[in-house]
Design brief:
Blueprint (H helix, E strand, L loop, with lengths): L3 E2 L12 E8 L21 E5 L9 E7 L2 E2 L3 E3 L5 E7 L6 E8 L2 E9 L4 E5 L6 E9 L13 E6 L6 E3 L5 E2 L6 E6 L7 H16 L3 E6 L21 E6 L19 E8 L3 E3 L2 E14 L20 H12 L2 E5 L20 H9 L18 E4 L5 E5 L2 E6 L2 E2 L3
Parallel strand pairs: 6-12, 14-20, 15-16, 15-17, 17-20, 22-24
Antiparallel strand pairs: 1-25, 2-18, 3-4, 4-7, 5-7, 7-10, 8-9, 8-11, 11-12, 13-21, 18-20, 19-20, 23-24
Helix pairs in contact: 1-2
């Protein structure tokens, strides 16, 4: 009842100009979405408090009070032991702090700890997977009002946080300081497709910090001009998601040839040249694509899906392929708890711990990239259902990694 496939591997063309990555999935996957970003530093514009002397005179000394907070790791597996640590400045009277989680618009206390020598360490709940926003606050006392830290994100997922993969080395990623404008081609799409796409986009954005903007609809079919060719997208569009039937000719995509067993294909074109940001080298993604086989029969949404036949859901497939669009590969070591695992299982579609670590790395936390010109040669890299191959076309390259096959 699983979809099995060998993991993607990392070779890619460095011929020059633009290269491309793509990965195909023969069926859905699953995992837990959670937030990234780093927490730290001082709280809201440090609170100024007045203190009276022993006789309660009005000449109080004004003291700035602030509290810092950061988790020992930004992403953890279920039931891992994680603490938020920090220090308090300007308030020698604080004896305890509380860890508060944001629920809607309300902050709720979930843990507390003692303050020793103005430092503290408070445990973070890791019993359930998800993306959470926290802050740490002091308790009022000795005429000093409570002070809270700056809010921070913390992610919890199932499986191995070290189970990660990237489609290129060094990794390719989008510029997190510019919006990724996407359009959808819903011709022949299953019921609920638009909602599944939007929610999947939200899951990637939440886990990476990348900014997506829906620009509308499109008639473009990615890959209609070939696998190694940058598509002629609508103006102000970097990503197109389309539903098509396998085949050749007008209205079809080279990413889903006749008799293809793939449920979806996701990938991106990236610069062969690298850019260094904070000492790390990166390829920059300049165009993405996601093609889904509208003839496949899968339930919509993000639940566990079918236990037999073609297992999983459309939500799982779209999340997996968007992971490839963001530059992720199948995880190594292989871990079925990750949504990027190259086999589908019957489980809810939520990011795993390794997915979250990888998405965080290719996201906002790694810093801005410059915006390159989109000119030059192109190639494609990824995992697909057809036999793997490595070809070159006049300085262009395309890498197809190991196939994915269904089990019914």
């Amino acid at each position: 009842h699983l979809v099995t496939a060998a993991p993607c591997v990392s070779p890619f063309s460095r011929a020059g100009g633009i290269s491309a990555l793509n990965c195909r999935l023969a069926a859905p996957l699953a995992v837990v979405a959670v937030g990234l970003s780093t927490a730290v530093n001082t709280g809201p514009a440090s609170a100024d408090t007045g203190r009276s002397g022993a006789a309660g005179h009005a000449n109080a000394t004004r003291t700035k009070v602030s509290i810092s907070a950061a988790p020992t790791v930004p992403v953890a597996r279920i039931d891992a032991r994680v603490r938020v640590t920090g220090s308090i400045t300007g308030n020698a009277g604080a004896s305890r702090v509380t860890l508060q989680r944001l629920h809607g618009r309300t902050w709720r206390t979930v843990a507390a700890a003692k303050v020793q020598k103005r430092r503290y360490a408070v445990p973070v709940p890791t019993g359930s997977a998800g993306m959470f926003t926290y802050r740490v606050g002091t308790l009022p006392g000795r005429g000093v009002p409570p002070v809270t830290s700056r809010p921070f994100s913390f992610a919890v997922g199932r499986g191995n946080p070290a189970a990660v993969g990237y489609l290129t080395h060094p990794p390719a990623r989008w510029n997190p300081c510019a919006p990724i404008r996407y359009r959808v081609n819903l011709a022949g799409a299953p019921k609920g497709a638009a909602a599944d796409i939007d929610r999947s986009i939200q899951q990637v954005a939440a886990a990476s910090g990348l900014r997506f903007v829906r620009a509308g609809t499109s008639k473009v079919v990615p890959g209609s001009q070939g696998r190694d060719v940058l598509d002629d997208y609508d103006r102000d569009t970097e990503l197109v998601i389309a539903y098509v039937a396998p085949g050749k000719g007008k209205g079809h995509s080279a990413y889903l040839p006749s008799r293809s067993q793939a449920v979806g294909v996701g990938g991106a074109f990236y610069t062969n040249a690298t850019t260094k940001v904070r000492g790390a080298a990166w390829h920059q993604i300049v165009q993405g694509y996601l093609v889904l086989d509208r003839t496949k029969k899968l339930p919509g949404g993000f639940g566990a899906g079918h236990r037999y036949g073609l297992v999983g859901t459309w939500g799982q497939v779209i999340m997996h392929e968007l992971g490839h669009v963001a530059g992720l590969d199948h995880p190594r070591p292989a871990d079925p708890a990750q949504i990027m695992y190259p086999s589908t299982t019957s489980k809810p579609a939520v990011w795993g711990a390794g997915d979250l670590v990888a998405l965080r790395r290719v996201g906002a936390v790694s810093g801005c990239l410059s915006t390159p010109g989109v000119a030059g040669a192109a190639g494609a890299q990824g995992a697909e259902v057809s036999a793997p191959s490595l070809r070159g076309h006049d300085g262009l390259g395309r890498f197809d990694a190991s196939p994915l096959n269904h089990r019914r």
